[in-house]
Amino acid sequence: MAVTLWLVRHAKAVDQPPPGGRDRDRTLASRGEAEAAALAEFLESSTLHLPPTVLVSPAARTHATAATAFRSLPREALVTESRLYDATDDEVLSIVGEHAGLGSSIGVVGHNPTIGLLIDALAPPVDEAARRCPPGTLAVISLPAGDLGSIELGTGVLEVHRTP
Question: How many domains does the chain divide into?
Answer without folding.
Answer: 1
